[in-house]
Amino acid sequence: MNPLERLSGWISESRNIVFFGGAGVSTESGIPDFRSQDGVYHQEYRYPPEQILSHSFFRRNPEEFFRFYRNKMLYPDARPNGAHLALAKMEKQGKLAAVITQNIDGLHQKAGSGNVLELHGSVLRNYCRRCGKSYELGEILRAEGIPRCGCGGVIKPDVVLYEESLDMEVLNRSAAAIAQADMLIVAGTSLTVYPAAGLIDYYQGSRLVLINKTPTPMDSRADLVIAGSVGEVLQEALEEHQY
């Protein structure tokens, strides 16, 4: 039995699948991987991306932050790819219990997934740091320079910046979902960013699947490793049994 057939069979037999995905899930939608050769981390800029995307830099130099953020982090025209659509289909069929994502693009929801746990927040949500008023992405895109609320406060994207902690409620819900899963699919992530990567430790089952184009530190722990495009692999696995 080849790896795709095994994956397809496990999906068919499972009833409580959890998917944990990283940047590689969205690259097929035209959103660059942060650390790939063509990603944000290899772009020329006045400051290193890690510095610009930090809490202290945002507070100290918001104008430069938003210049970078609009140019490099926002992809309003991006559309869900095969991976997002396959996962939404699995959820609709009652097989997928949750999507846990490190991405901030909202593409899982656009594809139709309902239970999405966003570890790093979302560019689609923004709020005034002074009064708390909520704003959509369009407000950030339309504003020139620093986006401001009617009260004069700076509007901040609801994304987790460097030096900021992950939302503990989202982290706890993610850990609980993984602990209860009968199958865990981890895809499109190098599994090097903590505490997110540590969530895999909560999985107690025997169907840990890793899908990634390059090896990860967790490959030796996996029950099935597939090297390839996340969207192509998931689509082919679903077509194998015509779910």
From TrEMBL:
It is an enzyme of class 2 (transferase). Pfam families: SIR2 (PF02146). Gene3D superfamilies: SIR2/SIRT2 'Small Domain (3.30.1600.10), TPP-binding domain (3.40.50.1220). GO terms for cellular component: cytoplasm. The active site is at residue 120. Nicotinamide binds at residues 34, 104-105. Binds 1 zinc ion per subunit. SUPFAM superfamilies: DHS-like NAD/FAD-binding domain. GO terms for molecular function: histone deacetylase activity, NAD-dependent; NAD+ binding; zinc ion binding. Belongs to the sirtuin family. Class U subfamily. PANTHER family: NAD-DEPENDENT PROTEIN DEACYLASE, NAD-DEPENDENT PROTEIN DEACYLASE SIRTUIN-5, MITOCHONDRIAL-RELATED. This is NAD-dependent protein deacetylase. It comes from Cuneatibacter caecimuris.
